[in-house]
Amino acid sequence: MGIPPRLALLAIAIFLPGLALAETVARPAEQQATNWPAILMFASFALATLGITRWAARRTRSAADFYAAGGGITGFQNGLAIAGDYMSAASFLGISAQIFSDGYDGLIYSTGFLVGWPIILLLLAERLRNLGKYTFADVASFRFAQTPVRLFAAFSTLSVVLFYLIAQMVGAGQLIKLLFGLPYGYAVGIVGVMMTLYVLFGGMIATTWVQIIKAVLLLGCATIMAFAVLATFGFSPDALFARAVEVKTQLALSSGTPPPEAAQRGASIMGPGNFIRDPISAISFGMALMFGTAGLPHILMRFFTVPDAQAARKSVLWATGWIGYFYLLTFIIGFGAIVLVGSNPDFLDSSGALRGGGNMAAIHLADAIGGNLFLGFVCAVAFATILAVVAGLTLSGASAVSHDLYASVIRKGQVTSEEEIRVSRRTVVVLAVVAILLGILFEKQNVAFMVSLAFALAASGNFPVLLLSVLWKGCTTKGVVWGGSIGVLLALVLTILSPAIWVSVIGNEVPIFPYSSPTIFSMPLAFFVIWIVSVTDRSPRAAVDRGGYEGQRVRSETGIGAEGASSH
Amino acid sequence: MSDDDDGAALRHSERLARIAADPRYQALVARRSRLTWLLTAVMVAVFFGYILLIAFDKAFLARPVGGGSTTIGIPIGLGVILVGILITGVYVRIANRRFDPVVRDIRDGSEP
What we know:
The structure holds two protein chains of two kinds. Chain A is mainly α. Chain A has one domain (5-337, 379-558): Sodium/glucose cotransporter (Up-down Bundle). Chain A has helices at 5-9, 19-26, 36-59, 63-68, 75-86, 89-102, 105-114, 116-131, 136-140, 146-180, 184-232, 237-254, 259-267, 279-292, 297-300, 309-340, 361-410, 417-441, 449-460, 462-471, 477-497, 499-503, 519-535, 540-547, 549-558. By secondary structure, chain B is an all-alpha fold. Chain B is rod-shaped. Chain B starts with a helix and ends with a helix.
């Protein structure tokens, strides 16, 4: 018996008040009866994507193909693939579940997840494309000493990827156990094996197309659900909200709450609740989401799959549009679930809680709307979603090892394309085994903090390093290595001392660090250390670093010299 | 490295230096940087303004509008998402129309 996927999956639940944690013990996730329509539909998705992998494998010849799909993805395609990378099962099931239980608060998550995209576009997207080849470290180390900067980048990429991966694997195991009625270990194993096949043989080409297909499926099924919900209310959102308030009030009344208080509790879903308590945690959380998105290595890597800066730009516009549309849909789906699921005893257990745990809100809604067949479809899409996200993460982790550590640090760039791909493929297998083992090891742990930790690490390490290396002439090798490393370490230490780990996981009474996210301290510290170390850096290397800025800037602004970076 | 490679590298860095001194390039960089920082500031202000509003005045966001159940928090929250999409749209439009032709000119004009 594990923890309910509500927590395992809704990694962002670190921001939830402690109440949600108490629920963990009360309602363990039980395995459901084997769901054949879902399994059949997932099997057809698996077959189709393996077919694509076969096709992609024939086109994967060089390192550029393997890491960056040969730079041959269009802006529109890349926009969908980015959206696919970003719309994880955690956002679909987690945010609709959050709205199902607390209403408005779910919308706050959605805004936080969206606002990182304009930042990526305005500050980084085109520069990444113009300066880099396969990994963000190509950009961060462009004018710096290769070895130290690549070492830092590989260390921070692997930390971000590992925490993200554990959260996804545990979430996948819990979810698939619930949706498909398969044992946890099988579920984790299937995810691990499928993801390995995609990345190992099809590289970035297969990973991109799996993301695109999954994004289209997920957007399609969310559109159908939101449309069906709105149709029930004559396309009046206000009628939907009014009915949701009624349902919540009824629920409060039937649990013995006195009428005035019940009416208040019903109405409370239309405004912010407990999610944001103190301003420090609120801003810190906002910073992690907004700037962390711009430091996620598997997202940054997607900008190397397009041919030029213009396509990189277009891909962010498409991605932002799709992601925004998707959050609008989840908002409607969440409220629809309150009305159609929350008032239907078929979906509730004897205590009035959702069958299978809080994360099942959208899944039950699919059943309520379209019956067993549509339920199977939504389950299959949720599985596909996890698979695609895990594949993207693994490719990014593998490229940090093969491109940054092996090719740049160990072989000093004297390496053939074939050798680099060979190391990358071996790393994919190692990462898959590690991910499966960690998934099994962490089955019974509360991994809810891990995705938000990944965002905090990315905002405190990769983002400051990347930003100052492309925008500030005075920045030096020493500065980025010290600043980035200290930012990452502080974010890690403060998270361990925060309520999410110190109290919920370790079991201490009082957290040493009282806020829910470390970013408000760790990110400014990273910027400060980069600045102070750089301005006091009198080494000969520092002179080379500063001298390289002008050439780098011309290339980052105009793309001159970037032609052919990905085609050889 | 062969002599040819050395020569090519030298020509390339001369080309970069020539562009860096080109007034059209300097004007482009200045304009683009003004626009990106302005839009970044708008996005940061809108998002953190929203977060601070939630932190300090929850009651305001829970106020009903239009006589129904919809509260003012809903258009504001969705508005933050919309502003994010609009900002990306505005930048992409300006970059496609105004910046790309200048970049093309600079690149073509600096061909060795």
